[in-house]
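As a warm-up, study this chain.
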Amino acid sequence: MSSNRRSNRRTPAAAAAEAVANNNDNIEASGGDDNDTNNPRLQAMRERSRAVAEREASRLARPDVSLASRKLGHASKTKSAVSSTPFGQLMKSSKGSGGTTNNNEAQEWCGPFSVARQMIVAREDARKLRLQQTEEGENDNKEHHPLDHVMEEAKLQQQRKENPSMNWISRRHRTGNTNDATNNSNYYVKRRKRFHQQKELMGMGGNSVPSLFQLCINYLVDNFDHVDSLGLVDHSIRVALCERLVAQGKMNGAAFDVLAEEGVETLELVDCAQVTQDQFCDAIKVLIPMGLRAILLQHCGRCFGGQAVNTIVGMKSDEIQLFALSLAGAYLLSDDDLSRLIGATSRTLSSIDLTACPLIGPQFCNAIGEHFSSSIGDVTNCLLELSLEDIPLKKEALLTLGAASDALRNVKSLKLRSIEAVDDEVVEIILNSIDEGSLEGIDLSSNSQLTDEVLSSIRRRGTNLRSLQLSGLRNLSAIALEAFFTPIDDLPSPPMLRKLDLSHCSHDEINDAVVMLAAKASSFRSLADAVNSEIEISSSVNPENLVSEITNSLGLVHVNVSGSSISDKSMEMLAATCKSSLEELDVGFCAGVSDKGLGYLVSKVARQLSKIHVWGCAQITEDFLDGHDRLDEGGLEIVGVWMKKSGGRSLR
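Now compare it with the structure written out below.
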């Protein structure tokens, strides 16, 4: 039975041929004469039948190249012809005498995807038509005046006067180089070319000649197995060697012995994972009596524990001259061992930096209050820097730092970062224990419990504050930040900051008004200039009018406002107030900053500006990336240009 079915099957071409034969039989049956070629009616019917059969055979047989068909007078070819190729068949349309296309409809494959595309296009066309009709209706209902265009032009001129960034023109448009051959190339090729060009200008490209310093470092690292001693080289050279050794996986015990040789005053290692406690203890037994002044260790969980503390504590007090202790990742260091270490080194220790030490607790806080208090009678021991990050301290332990004694009276730099127990009360008590005018830098980032009240405590105690880092504080409000940077009676003047970090706070709270007030407060010669100034901070102020009241020696140096709602107005204010000071700017994920704002900033700020972060700014296009004023001279690094395609479509 199956063989009979296969024998009865017909190919599509055979079916089409049979259709043509049946059609001709029908024509003959209708009364025509096969030899009568002079009958135009029969000739036209034959032509139509033959054309239909050829098109149907082309569709059923799925040929690679469709057969040419003749033009019919009775039907539209665009409606009757069907292509079997997935991408559709573009049919040629007749052109008039003027050369314009009479039929602009795209011929697509008759399938579900093409139908969906046609429906989407139709829906978009209908939406645009409705919007156009609505706008036309509104324009018809509005009363028109002969001077309307004059008023619009005057309004535009006023906006350009208030916002000087609107007058910035990209070099691509100034030179008429917007239609070059690279615009037609793949975007990946263009951004790769831009990235390599930037590296070449920064001296880091593949074809750039390395410096003599880098050549020497590379040569030493390649042959470090044969190095017995570095001699009296500078500390920066030892750090560069350590970084390169870690990058190449050569930082082992033998390399540590060379870096930690006799006579070094600072032992700084970026990775101690391959150093054992025995090696470290043997090294500090020799280094501390020889005048070791600072221990700065990263990833030191393996080498710095109770054995290392016992080695240091067991030495004579007059042999210990440590003034800086920085430990990161010391998971073996217990609370009791650290408190004993603080007691043994408190005579000269002035800087403590602890990061990710999970066993630290209240005994450490008590040791600071006990050994750095002024009640012990030694005026030489004073703590100048306290940095705690990701330390599991309780609120009671933190309160003892400020309430138990005056151990923090001389602190100039305070860092309490990513500590769950830090709240407004803890910060207020700690700041009240610091002498007025002593604090110069504070970092309270990533503490979710802090609110607007912390700004009041900082304002009262931070009269000489130069660095303010409040990243990730989602509870801060715009009103409180504006008040913090505004001169108010009975309060100290706003801090003249050099570093401001308000990244990853609430998006709507970090706005143009906050940035403009902070920039203005950091740049005025004195409080009297800011108070007596008749220029108010608003969206209608031209920042260029403030230049006469701003000193060139002051201004923000590092600004990080990523994830905020600032716009080009902030760029204009930074260009006016930080012209000779701004070195690094981070505007990542700031959708309100445009090409004109950044281009205007780069054109106004001096050559000390070295880095701009634009991660997540899909609105930044080639007008800025390939058209700012420092494109060809180098020295300015644009970080984040690999992420996106201009116009909003991301490339992954």
